Amino acid sequence: MRLRIPSTAPDGTKFTGEGACCEIEIANPQLWWPAGYGAQPLYQVEVSLSAGGAALDTWSRRIGLRTMTVSREKKDYGETFSHCVNGVDVFAMGMDYIPEDNLLPRVNPQRTRRLLEDSRAANINTIRVWGGGYYPDDYFYDICDELGLLVWQDFMFACAVYNLTDEFEETIVAEFKDNIRRIRSHPSLALWCGNNEMEQFVAFDNEWVKNMRQKSDYIKMYQYILPKVLKVEDPQAFYWPSSPSSGGDFDIPHDPTRGDVHDWDVWHGLKPFTDYRNYLFSYVSEFGFQSFPCMETIESFTLPEDRNLFSYVMEKHQRNSTANGRIVSYLSQMYLYPSNLDKLVYASQLLQAQAMQYGVEHWRRNRGRCMGAVIWQLNDCWPVASWAGIDYFGRWKALQYYAKRFFAPVLVSCHEEGLLNQEGTSVNTERIDPKKTARLNVSNETMAPFTGKVRWTLRRPDASVIEEGSFDVEAPALTAVWLPEQDFTQYGPYDCYYSYQLTDGAGGVVGAGSVLFCAPKHFKFADPQLTARIEGDEIVVTASAYARSVELQCGADVILEDNFFDMDGGERRVKIVRGEAKDVSARSVYDIR
Questions:
Q1: β pairing state of 509-516 and 531-535
Q2: Which stretch of DSSP H or E encloses residue 527?
Q3: Minimal CB count within 10 Å: which of 65, 76, 162, 172?
Q4: Do 410 and 502 contact (CB within 8 A), yes or no?
């Protein structure tokens, strides 16, 4: 038998190996990197097997050359957990992927490419394939290779226990081998994970486990059988027994100082958004918050008489028990009660986006201690109220625009102290003189040092300036740098806000934002008198005062360069990225009433 391996490098250089047994050495490999850290060069490799001049089999793939593992270093506080690519520890900025449709034949390469390109457009670098779905088609991984999206790949076991009979073992081993062989050559494959949430529930939930045999079968499946198959089929890959886990053996699988965690105290636990700042997890592979899809999506599955939050149809399109009420509960903490469903939908999307912002920005400010923030979830399999950032029809919610900002390679963010984290939202418990401070941070998740300037202002609701100043910024590659804390305790919490903008050395705007020192429902907003118009491929929006979370509405399927952004009055131009914009209008938090 004879092998022939004609291959083509990304620059077009051709090389061939041939013989009964052969190796190809690439002297100066072009390395594959995750998005944001370098390029994604791919080599075309063809392998043919023949005997006596007759072709027996062929194999063809595009591959990338890189090293990939997970760094786990002992620290005083516990242990690190980070994707390590070509020797560089990467901060995972990602979302969890579920099946794109409840009828899988509807999924196709074009639809998947659009979803993954929209993920990349939101500065996502990591996709976790959730173990409660299915193994995606080959083209899913091809697209991730091209876009530089790291893939955390769960095996398809989730939220259950399994009886390990001889027949079941035979079928799962065949499943393991088939999918490992199919996926293993993709450079985007970051790790294999045994299952979703089973270790923590088998360890602590007596309702799941009916007998000790099931607990023992769990150990056999995920700490013996699966690793043994991987050792043969993909020996260089990193294997993680479960998500969340601290490494297996039921050793505190939700330990915040080791491995990965699923943090659901916000949302399921009804904790306030500020609770995220109480934890410095090593890696968060699930955390999320629900919102409603836009009105056009709601109209696709309702009649006018159904468009009430607690109607049968609306609750049927909400499969998380009592979740519509949970959204209203969080709404009561943050916003005035909306006067109609459209405004409630808008407010729900802001709640979702701002909850995730609280978590991601906090963890990015503590880069090194935390090295991953993967949001539940990226997409939907039907039109529904859910945790998704992109709905079933591919329409971006506020979360996706916020993600584009808080997953930016260079991020400026603010850790503020105000009424929310000191007193909550009850006006009956506030202190006479609560602390009101702001501390900026610049997170540089790039391979080059960043030099720039932050300009900050303390403003009144009409956007007029009370105080202003600036900080020079020097942020080395792959670091997060704190700037000095500023104290504004002498000012009232309801009638001033803090605004900031980061520029690079050439004066280009890198990022911006604003924070309040109270819940938005209590802030004394002035009417920003928003106007919006279309000029060519741009939307021009103007505001006469502070406008928070400005939503430009110009068609549900239109994707903009930015949306749901803050304005200190004045004018802003926003590019139309996709779709035909028409009948443009604008609203802000001022309009939630």
A1: unpaired
A2: none
A3: 76
A4: yes
Measuring CA to CA, which residue among 121, 236, 133 is closest to residue 186? 236
What is d(CA 197, CA 193) in angstroms, rounded to the nearest whole number?
11
- Give the catalytic positions in this structure: 197
Report yes or no on whether pTM surpasses 0.90: yes
Q: What's the token pair of residue 470? A: 């600036």
Q: How many other CB atoms sit within 10 Å of the CB of residue 30?
A: 18
Q: Is 153 helix (H, G, I), strand (E, B) or coil?
A: strand
Rounded-to-integer distance, Cα 17 and Cα 29, Å = 16
Instruction: Tell me the Cα Rg of the chain.
Output: 25
Q: N- to C-terminal Cα distance for the chain?
A: 77
Distance CA 512, CA 175 (A): 48
pLDDT digits (tens, 9 = 90+) for 200-258: 999 887 677 888 888 999 999 999 999 999 999 999 999 999 999 999 999 999 999 99
Per-residue model confidence as pLDDT tens digits over 32-77: 999 999 999 999 998 888 887 788 888 889 999 999 999 999 999 9
Alpha-carbon span 570 to 590, nearest angstrom: 16
pLDDT tens readout for residues 143-201: 999 999 999 999 999 999 999 999 999 999 999 999 999 999 999 999 999 999 999 99
Backbone torsions φ then ψ of 174, nearest 5 degrees:
-65, -40
Rounded to 5 degrees, what angle do the CA atoms 41, 44, 50 make?
A: 160
- For tokens 């506030």, name the residue: 430
